[in-house]
Batch of 2 targets.
Target 1
Amino acid sequence: MTVEIAGLTAKFQTNYGRAPIGFVRAPGRVSLMGGAVDYNEGFVLPMAIERETVAAFAPRKDRLINLSSRQAEEHEASFALDDEIAPGEPTWANYCKGVAAGLRSRGTRLVGMDILFDTSLPLGGGLSSSAALEVATALAMLRASGETMEDYELARLCQKAEHEFANSPCGIMDQTICIMGQKGHALLLDCRDGSVKHVPFDDLSVVVLVADTQVRHSIAEGGYASRRAQCFSAAKKLGVKALRDADEEMLDAAARDGVLADIELMRARHVVPEIRRTVDAAGALAARDYTRFGKVMLTSHASLRDNYETSCDELDSVVELACSCEGAYGARVSGGGFGGCVVILADAGKAEAISQTIASGFFRKFGRPCPIFPTRAAPGAAVLD
Ligand code: ADP
Ligand code: MG
């Protein structure tokens, strides 16, 4: 499901009294493998999805940036490019302000503009609407000012905007896949040096299902920050730069010698094998070995549930329901956890039946719907012609 451009154009006309001169799109993503690994400098395997954020824009003669969103209709924002740019209200616009501040400080000649956003992504659902918002903002601003930027630098700039303006200490995965995703490919990203490998995933006999528990999280909340801190402290005590540099023998020795607090050991028992599993999963995907890939997904989910403790009843139930279906290879939480979406690898021919089984089982248990949509690997962000 993509954003409807005609409706966006009409709304732009209503908000700003003129037509937009351009559009950019930025996709959401699922995390196929690699949970809680990005900030530990390991490997992650995300894929851009067919749901996306679109920005309609038009430059202005003055130095104002006006922002509005169809997801925040009563909360428009405005700031001047020549004043200090600081976070404030409405909070959704802070992602965009952070991008403008970052572009300005690297010397990009920004121009005043009106921007209207719309998205087919759920907000706060673990499909990375925040990175899509940042990247769409950046592409619109670069386009309007006639400048370009290298992908990796752009990803860093958007991540910094989220850290500094939205108070959300996210890793580099979301922005990278949003910018660098390729149609028919997942992306194996080394979060240590930012290097990427596009992994072919264009087999039409399988499809990715995304099931939204509609349990909402915010990674600016405590659970994410505390796990991050536990991982950093575990790495420090193990004498390594990041948990990327630890192995399972080191963890066994640390367990024997009592080097780590119990909670740190538990977190490391997730992260260290998860990094290896993610590389393994990329190999399985490229080899079209979906049975192996699905097993790795399930191991990852169980470890996020038991060692990392970032799952919840709704997520676990969707994974269990998926496992009960013929034609479902595996499932795991996609994103920061504590709610949001489950990603399921399914036989294309069975996807409809699997979706129905999950939706009705979820409704029986929780008394509310669990929206599910199929997607394949979509391209990264771009200016629309
Ligand atoms: P996720 O990235 O998983 O969707 P986050 O909590 O990181 O969840 O980001 C969600 C936040 O991003 C929303 O609460 C909102 O502030 C902002 N946001 C994202 N997309 C939009 C949009 N189209 N319009 C307004 N705000 C948006
Ligand atoms: Mg986000």
Target 2
Amino acid sequence: MTDYQPQLEWATEWLQQPRSCFIGGAWHDGAGAVLDSVNPATGEVIGHIKCAIEDDVDLAVEAAREAFDNGPWRTTISHQRRGQIMRELAGAIRANLEQLATLETLDNGKLFTEACEDVTNVADFFDYYAGWTDKFYGEVNPVNSYFSYTRRDPVGVVGQIIPWNYPMDMAGYKLGPALAMGNTVVIKPSGMTSMSLVRLFEIFDESGLLPTGVLNLVVGRGQVGSYLSRHPRVDKLAFTGSTVVGKQLVRDSADSNLKLLSLELGGKSANIIFDDAPDLQYAITRSFVAMFSGKGEKCTEPTRLFVQRGIYQTVLDGLLREDANWKVGDPFDPASNQGAQVSEEQFNSIMGYIEIGKSEGARLLCGGTRNTTGSNAKGFFIDPTIFVDCTNRMRIAQEEIFGPVLTVIPFDSEEEAVAMANDSVYALAAGFWTNDVARTQRVANALQAGQVFINRYGCYDPASPFGGHKQSGWGNECGIRSLELYTRTKTIWYAN
Ligand code: NAP
Ligand code: MG
């Protein structure tokens, strides 16, 4: 994809120093435990994080509060200047792309090429939302006798909590719209992958472009997020993570100040290959790549593959061919297709699901094993694992595994495929492959999912809304929809 080069020497040096929070325009050591950052491709400790405690979170929230209530970001800085600053930040991110991507690969285990795409996305999100700073209109309401109009006001202090799988992308599509609409932010990455955000905040700091307290970073594990989610002086919380934690955040909001919530939660997405798929070989290749890229640690990955009976064996043969050409290994090696699972804990959880699949009677087409080839010996690598002849009621078809494990389920009719696809507590994404125009409308309408892909699984663009239905979440991020998440409508009546 790119000619980008890993910056390993630089990263080794940079990681010498323990890293921590950025609060009110200054670096601030959290007073909590010191956490190891581990490279899951080697099992080695690469750096340390000084975790925040509640007092540190209080400081960050107060810095954001002060910046929102009394700072220039939402008031004296013009909308045009706000956009210009965001574009300049996008440029600074691009200028440091290799460093950010190197840290991400070291911390998360994903391919360096994937990390480069992630960092490109952050910059693209800043550019995209920079364009909205002066284009978000209110309305004049057609009322009788009075003059009534609406404004979109920023929400205020926003807490943002993100998981370990896409720290960079999520920083982009959470910080971008929050900033564009004039909010101030306290963001918490996963304690497992904090380094790329620390470096991102250094880049913001070095740019000198943002007023004090507009963006704040707190690092640490779940309890830091939990304190932020219960904080009475946080006006809104944007969360990406598991459905279990998402439900807890709803309770936290109710028990604290009824803060607004947007939730991007789990998924168990369906991918249906009909026997009239326009290009069956492409459908197979793309289904495999969408499933196993990012080592299967993606919320939208097509984990349930429904295949029409007449082409079932052809698809299984095709998946095996893809598997034979797929290399699991060193995430910095350009020849690798799949890196290491993010942590030992996640690795164990995935291996546990593989055992569950076997005990449920699913047939293993390939994989199911730890990959310890050569330099993979000490890392948390898992071969692409494909269970076939599954039923949709198996646990491996219902529960989110979040790893390189695919379940393949045969079907006979369109109705049966759609019914099984919708038989899930999740509804994040779905895809299908067909050449029948009438079917494209019928099935796209019938599928329960926040986004539906036809004849190409997995599309992504800053301009296109992204979100889940059912237990996959509340609200849409990206595109114009995100502006709604980061503003509130105020109606003003004027009598003359
Ligand atoms: P998770 O346990 O829910 O963690 C997500 C974030 O919340 C992390 O920063 C975590 O900190 C923090 N956290 C944990 N417990 C918390 C609590 N009680 N209160 C507040 N914050 C808390 O999710 P995960 O298992 O790490 O990540 C994978 C999940 O994310 C999957 O379910 C996946 O589907 C979902 N996901 C969804 C999307 C989407 O857009 N829909 C995208 C990506 C991932 P620590 O990690 O430091 O503990
Ligand atoms: Mg790590």
